[in-house]
Write a structure and sequence with these properties.
Radius of gyration: 19 Å
CATH architecture: Up-down Bundle
CATH topology: Glycerol uptake facilitator protein
CATH superfamily: Glycerol uptake facilitator protein
Largest sheet: none
């Protein structure tokens, strides 16, 4: 009788074989899959912001956001998409000599910038759709607050937060592979992603939505005034931080942290643990 779920060694082997396919993707397909993933994560961010923007209790707010945000990764897993943070697991395939370091780097770079394109497009559509007018512009102010908080985080904290985040994101990806039915995959994704959102840790692709959305919101004077009224963030502070420089200053350390979390804390230890089982299986 088949097991109800794939074993850890089987999960890692399946992920490495999937990594081979990622390394061989044609450029256009890789770009489109990356854009879809960025857009799906952005939908999770936009909808969770809309749900929690007027909740004062931080624990309740984060818990509700954590229940909504996982929809992004679910759409990627069930419909298709290439997500930079999950693709950091490709390092195991490099360690197993299934493909080269250069092939992995090329894939990660294409996926990273494609994720950004998809997320920024959704951020622009959200802004121009009028969604941020919710609660007399309070959602616009909240969007500014979230982005401002991300652009002012200290670099070392951003790296550590990125590590914690991608440990959980990569576990969600691997646990979804362990499950054999769609219900199992839903719950396998839900709990680790919910935990990362409640923890408030930094995800570079999510920030490709949150920060541009905040930059767009900062173009609206009423949202800026509301942000000062509700959160005490002045127009000068917003202008100084919600810009391309602020975006990059967050993205670099968070991306480094995400790569360390996925590669050093998850993929390589799991490969070291299960390598013998995988080698014996292929003989």
């Amino acid at each position: 009788m088949d097991n109800a779920f794939n074993t850890p060694a089987q999960v890692l082997d399946a992920n490495m074989r999937a990594g081979e396919g990622k390394a061989k993707l044609p450029l256009l397909k890789c770009i489109l899959l990356g854009m879809m993933a960025g857009a799906f994560i952005a939908f999770g961010g936009a909808s969770s912001n809309a749900a929690v923007h007027n909740i004062a209790n931080q624990g309740l707010s984060k818990t509700l956001a954590g229940c909504i945000f996982p929809v992004g990764l679910m759409m990627i897993v069930f419909v298709g998409g290439e997500l930079f943070t999950g693709d950091c697991l490709m390092i195991a395939g490099v360690a197993d000599r299934k493909f080269s370091v250069l092939a992995m780097i090329k894939t990660l770079l294409i996926v990273f910038f494609s994720n950004m394109a998809g997320a920024v497009i959704i951020a622009a559509l959200v802004y121009f759709s009028g969604l941020l007018d919710y609660t007399n512009g309070a959602l616009g102010a909240f969007t500014i607050k979230v982005a401002y908080g991300k652009t002012t985080i200290a670099p070392f904290k951003a790296v550590c937060s990125g590590i914690l985040c991608n440990i959980l994101v990569c576990m969600a990806v691997l646990m979804a592979t362990a499950a054999k039915d769609i219900a199992g995959k839903v719950w396998a994704i839900f709990f680790p992603i919910c935990a990362f959102v409640i923890g408030g840790w930094e995800h570079c692709v999510a920030n490709m939505f949150y920060i541009p959305a905040g930059i767009f919101a900062s173009m609206n004077g009423s949202y800026v005034a509301k942000a000062e009224e509700l959160y005490g963030i002045t127009a000068d502070q917003i202008a100084a931080n919600l810009n391309i420089g602020g975006f990059i200053s967050n993205l670099i350390p968070v991306t480094i942290g995400n790569m360390l979390g996925g590669m050093v804390f998850i993929a390589l230890p799991l490969y070291a643990i299960h390598r013998s089982k995988i080698v014996n299986k292929t003989k």
